[in-house]
Amino acid sequence: MTAVPDGTPDGIPDDEQFAGQETVWMPKSELDGHLRGALAGALPDGATFGFNFEGDRAWVIVSKPGDTRQVLQAARTALGRA
User: Fold this and answer.
1) pTM above 0.90, yes or no
2) Pairing state of beta strands 2-3 and 23-27?
C-alpha cells in the first residue's frame, strides 16, 4: 500500500508497473483506513496499489497484474459495502 506523492500532476504513478492501469476516483470519505486495509488484502499476487487524496476526492490505482475495479469490488464486498 502506497500513498504516492509524485508521478503525473495528480500524483498518479507513471512508472511501468502502473502503465495502462485504470485510476478510479471516489469521494475522499470512502477511502478510509478500513477500505485501504481491505484493498491490501484483495490484491492478486505481485500487485500493489497506490492512492492519494485531492480536495474532497481520492483515487486508487492497482498495479499489474491486478485490475483496479475488481480489487475495489472485492475490498468493498469484504467490508459489506458492495
Assistant:
1) no
2) unpaired
